[in-house]
Design a protein that fits this description.
Layout: E1 2-6, H1 11-23, E2 27-31, E3 52-55, H2 62-72, E4 76-79, H3 86-91, H4 94-117, H5 120-125, E5 127-133, H6 164-183, E6 187-192, E7 194-196, H7 205-214, E8 219-222, E9 228-233, H8 234-247, E10 253-256, E11 261-263, H9 264-278, E12 293-296, H10 311-317, H11 325-338, H12 340-347
Parallel strand pairs: 1-2, 1-4, 2-3, 4-5, 5-6, 6-10, 7-9, 8-12
Antiparallel strand pairs: 9-11
The structure holds nicotinamide-adenine-dinucleotide.
């Protein structure tokens, strides 16, 4: 079995590749253009073998994407490549439209032509798995009239994206569904809640707070910090994704979540408590890490609450998260303490020099 993973140098894609390389004998091709968010240091050299190949390709480059399909002949595509940071999408939406919409369209078209060219047996087994977000459903706090169950997003909740990021991800989801319904391309879609864990790029909430705290810098919390997110440990997500990609029902959607609804301020306070516990030698002038918290201007259009009902994937595929928020957050902080070389290379830009497994 050969899996083509797009965005495999990113936070979640690299977790998927680490999982495939360490837990399965599947071949994996990592297709990634190595934007600022792509980091090949996130796939340790010790895991690399002939099981792995890397293609430095932009999904917006149709010719190159076509070549990768022909050269590598994948059985499954797991599509994670995306521009993923909401704040950046507000500042510069253009590359979000390019990668998340046009790039997904290119990939679908390349996949469709490749799939049609396959011999019957391989054609019957082909699967295209699109990885998406709970943010496509919009703000649960304003969903009085919307279909949701016990105040949670279900697979049939109507799309109502708020940010340029979530609008482009919603567009991509719609394209994938259309390619399934119109052309019969065997697709699956997963929508997942906020991930956290090792190898997370420091612009995102949890690593940003950990690294600022360790450096004695302010911990900026948007608005009043009461925004609620459902948090999932990234390795639990990676396991769910490989399960859906290989065993999910074609044409279906699966919500994935951690059953860990937390207000942002509570996430930051939990991080501070774990840091107080694990790092007794604090930066000068810091008695408790929570003293560094500072409330800053809220993000425009900030959704107040997302929460997932992940009962379908549990019921149909037997997946459930292994980490609770308490265990996952402690593991995450410990990982950043043990892996200073990884994040220092991100902060000083050296990570962009790494090139591994190129085919
Ligand atoms: P990330 O930003 O860490 O990684 C994205 C990867 O895609 C990077 O390696 C980047 O180099 C690559 N990439 C970007 N544009 C590309 C292009 N044009 N061509 C080829 N590669 C390109 O993102 P992530 O957090 O790992 O998210 C992965 C996927 O999961 C995304 O589709 C995202 O929408 C989805 N998702 C993320 C979360 C989360 O909490 N991070 C939650 C649910 C869903």
């Amino acid at each position: 079995m050969k899996i083509l993973v797009t965005g495999g140098a990113g936070f979640i894609g690299s977790a998927v590749i680490r999982y495939i390389l360490s837990e399965t004998d599947y071949q994996v091709v990592n297709l990634d253009s190595l934007t600022y968010a792509g980091n090949l240091d996130s796939i340790p050299a010790t895991l690399l073998s002939s099981q792995y190949a890397f293609e430095c390709v932009d999904i917006c480059n149709k010719e190159q994407v076509d070549r990768v399909f022909l050269q590598h002949q994948p059985d499954i595509v797991m599509h994670l490549a995306a521009e993923s940071h909401v704040d950046r999408s507000i500042e510069s939406p253009n590359c979000f439209v390019e990668t998340n919409i046009i790039g997904t369209y290119n990939l679908l078209e390349s996949a469709r032509v490749y799939w049609l060219s396959l011999a019957d047996e391989k054609k019957a087994g082909f699967r295209f798995h699109h990885i998406s977000t709970d943010e496509v459903f919009g703000d649960l706090a304003c969903q009085g009239s919307k279909e949701s169950q016990n105040g949670l997003f279900v697979e049939t909740t109507a799309y109502d994206p708020s940010s340029p990021y979530s609008a482009t991800k919603a567009s991509a989801d719609h394209l994938v569904r259309a390619w399934c319904r119109t052309y019969g391309l065997p697709t699956l879609i997963t929508n997942c809640s906020n991930n956290y864990g090792p190898y997370h790029f420091p612009e995102k909430l949890i690593p940003h707070m950990i690294l600022n705290a360790l450096n004695g810098q302010a911990l900026p919390v948007y608005g009043n910090g009461l925004q609620v997110r459902d948090w999932l440990y990234v390795d639990d997500h990676a396991r769910a994704l490989v399960l859906v990609a290989t065993k999910g029902q074609i044409g279906e959607r699966y919500n994935i979540g951690g059953h860990n609804e937390k207000r942002n301020i509570d996430v930051v306070n939990s991080l501070c408590s774990v840091l107080d516990d694990l790092v007794p030698d604090k930066p000068d002038g810091v008695e408790h890490y929570r003293d560094l918290i500072q409330f800053v201007h809220d993000r425009p259009g900030h959704d107040l609450r997302y929460a997932m009902d992940a009962s379908k994937i549990q019921r149909e595929l037997g997946w459930q998260p292994e980490e609770t928020f308490a265990t996952g957050i402690r593991k995450t902080v410990q990982w950043y303490l043990d892996n200073t070389a990884w994040w220092q290379r991100v902060l000083n830009g050296d990570y962009q020099l790494t090139r591994r497994g190129e085919s």
